[in-house]
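Ticket #4471: structure export looks truncated?
Reporter: QA, pipeline team
Priority: medium

Steps to reproduce: submit the single chain below to the structure queue and open the exported record.
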Amino acid sequence: MAKINILSRQTAELIAAGEVVERPASVVKELLENSLDAGATAVTVEIKNGGITYIRITDNGCGIARDDVRTAFLSHATSKISDADDLEAIYTLGFRGEALASVAAVARVELLTRTPEEETGTHLAVEGGVQGEPEDAGCPKGTTIVVRDLFYNTPARMKFLKKDVAEANAVAGVVDRIALSHPDVSFRFIRDGKETLFTSGDGKLDGAIYSVFGREFLSELVPAEYESNGVKVSGFTSKPSAARPNRSMQFFFLNGRLIKTGTGSAALSEAYRNSVMTGKFPSCVLNISVSPHTVDVNVHPAKIEVRFSDEKAVFNAVYYCVKNALEGDRSRVQFVKKDDRRAINNFLGMLQEQTVKSEQAEQLKMPQPPERNNDDFWSRIINKPLKPKPLGKDDGDDENSGFVLPLDDKTKSGLNAEKGGENDFLLKDRNMTNESRADSEIAPPTAEEAPALSDDTAVTEQEEPAEFRIIGEAFKTYILAECKDKILVIDKHAAHERMIFEQLKASEGAADRQLLLEPVTVTLNKEDYSATLENLSLLKESGFSVEDFGNGTVIVGECPMIIDSGDISDIITELAGYLASNKTGVFSEKIDRIYHTAACKAAVKAGDFTSEYEMRKFTEKLLSMPEIRYCPHGRPVIVELTRRELEKNFGRVQ
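Actual output as written to the record:
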């Protein structure tokens, strides 16, 4: 057995730092939580090169006393708790005392701080966990921390960092979520010298949502608030019509801390039951307020997972908060009460009467046009027969000047039967001989003189019997067809989806595209936004022209011809979520997923009306493609029910 060694302090700090500091976003999160715990009302975050080379966080909090500056960078040193009993009721975001020590172990850190009681600030430099001496410095009240060259002394960790853009978007996502959790704090985010986020800190959550996600996302939300059994839930939830294809826009905060809660997500989904389509998910920004004694936040190193002592109370509070908000939403069209309608009609009638009197007075002063027949225009045109122009007659003498209509016996008989006596002028004598017919204006050709018809244009008295017969449609979802001794049940959405998928895949990126008259903007969370920007060439090859629109938004200018413009936002949102969670997937799998998503959105939906002609043509095309047996999800597109199986169920055969 190998000898057991005691690790050096520096090695132990590097190991501990790996649990807390994973990337620049982790550093920003830990330092921002310290600023909020210090009572800051204004915080500025500045990064360069994705935060790898430079991070600066400035706040106007209470600051750190000079005597505590060196202690603050030691492991497990904190001002948030003092003994084990304090863990039972944690009121702050941070409490473990690992953040500053972990960051200082893998970076070059400078600290500037001053408390309200001190006249002179303090400067301290820490490099690789080694502290310098505190020095006097001029600075405002609060704390400024500068982190340079992250992971400079751990090259192995540096290899796992992503591109600067991806790391910067991850930092932006952290700032976004903390800004949403504390609308009473003003946040400013500067990225490579450009300010990309500013919140006013006026305490209004809708203002913070507007600053983070924009006007379009905010317009899809309704306010929500509910309190019961010591649990208070407040914030905003989305309208059912604004449901998204994934849960990336669901934000739950517990006493101002971002959390992942299966209880909250389940309650949210239950509140929207029968209100959103299957496969769609609502968005929300909800803050859950409970007594710190009823929750344990010391579960996960990132403090993002928690345990509630009463899960049911939290579930009910979230459920009724959202349910009440949806039932109280009056953004849809409302009916007018009968009394109100009567008053409105009386007012409109009086207004119309005054308008009519004014028009009559004006008409007395003007020459009146001749009266016109009030018959329907189309009725008058259809009922008026078009007369053929006799040969040799002057153009001006005929009622239909310049119109020549050569008619044969069959056409004349059809028109005469359709119009009755009105078309007797077309055929004065039904027993006319061929000789007398020759004296008329135009004689129809004889059988010998008639031109031969090709097979494509041949017309028979009776159509050839079809190989299948459309029976109808069940539940506006399944097409029923009879083919030989079988009944075919066709899932029209699954079959159409597979057809489009195969069409897109066969095009190999050369499918017809359409240039959108009005480009579509799509708002994403920062992780999905970053993944989308990393795969712009992939989307381009798939037929989508997507560009960066800034601050978590992309703009779509082109899409495949088969896509409806109303589906583009859902497609890009779903694809962004997939790309963010499958970053290591192979290229062909990503292409197939894009085609699959596009086909699913473009295909006819269950519940859509389908005419008999459409069902016939659709079935004809499907049966001519025997390779289509399953949809891209793996579900069958056709289920066959044989005549024997049917007769067996009815007891006709044994």
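Status: closed, not a bug. The export was complete when the record was re-opened. Leaving a note from the reviewer for reference: The two ends are 75 Å apart (CA to CA).
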